[in-house]
Amino acid sequence: MRLLQRTRTRLCLFAMNRHDPSKLHDCSPNIHDPSKTVPNSHEQEVLSSVGRSFHPGRQIAKDSKHHCEGNNCLKEIVPNTRLDLQTAQLLGFNSFIPRFATAKGEEMLKGVNYPSGAAGIRDESGRQLGDNISMNEQLQNYQTTVSQISKILGSDTAAASYLKTCLFTVGIGSNDYINNYFMPNSYPTTRQYMYTPGQYAKVLVEQYSQQLKVNDQTLYQGGARKLALLGLGRIGCTPAELASFGPNPGSNCIEKINDAVRLFNTQLVSLVDELTKDFKDAKFTYINVYEFGSADLKDFDFKVTDMGCCGGRNPCLPSTTPCKNRSEYVFWDQFHSTEAVNVIFGQRAFKTQTPSDVHPIDISTLSKL
User: Fold this and answer.
1) Which residues of 118-138 are buried (b: 16+ CB within 10 A; e: fewer)?
2) 87, 93 contact by CB (below 8 A)
3) Contact by Cβ (8 Å): 217, 139
4) Alpha carbon 83 to its chain's center
5) Whole-number Å distance between alpha carbons of 284 and 271
6) pTM above the 0.90 mark?
7) What is the rounded distance in angstroms from the CA atom of residue 274 to the CA atom of residue 356?
8) Model confidence pLDDT, tens digit, residues 203-256
9) What is the phi-psi region of residue 231: left when phi exceeds 0, alpha when psi lies from -120 to 50, beta otherwise?
10) Which of 48, 173, 31, 38 has its CA nearest to residue 115?
């Protein structure tokens, strides 16, 4: 085992993420539990994407499907954002961390990934695609890891001392919109049945809050003391949503979806403030992924912003031939950004470029506290 030190923070990062179509995904070892994540043909069509889990630390909540082509993969179920990969590299990580299903012994001390295809904050999100490991279930898996770390280090006290120096990243919620709220034929949460967008954002963040702090099955009670909460990106600009709903006139996005996402993000910023006030021994920050996407990406030499390199606006299947100039595309497939975009986003999460990138501090600063 190699455990690196960076100021007061160990190079261990606990991350909770889900498949986030608005975010960036890339090839790297991913973490999922094959016994719990059961793909089916429909899921393969909807979630075909680039992305693997690379959280040099603990990752809890993620999803997707992949097949490798150069630096982009489409292979198992569970991606992680390239934003996480880029951030991990900037923190000094030089190897991937094990997934929960295979992590053993002291290798857990460098981190464990816990993602699952189509998983969300709500237990039912993504279930139309088959089984997945929801946020609540992934938190249970994390508690299993905490118990194992206690045995490795000799006591619960030693484990707590170790965990409080680690960095946790949490990114969850996209599937609660893509594979729940905006699928009224499969779920009753949408406006005409149960919640307005504002009500849904409030309910969703309230449940998220419970998962972070309240009982024994939470991150805080499990030892997390440095947490970066990733906001949702511009889901309404993904090729899949454009294909399903059609863009607004004069726009390359579906604004009703992005409006709903902004409501969630606003609630999430308030949650960070609440957590900071309630838990004086912990540090929380919000990473404004939505803001990262506000830049005119054509200024970065991206030529295609509304189609995936693999599949265009159709699913990226194993038989699909991807484009050869992926660095000119914003999206790899229907949902996930290319590595070129992910690098830009990851750098901004790590070291803020504008005051609105984070609230209140960037990951570089958080890691040193």
Assistant:
1) bbbbbeebbbbbbbbbbbbbb
2) no
3) yes
4) 9
5) 9
6) no
7) 19
8) 999 999 999 986 666 889 899 999 999 999 999 999 999 999 988 888 889 999
9) beta
10) 31
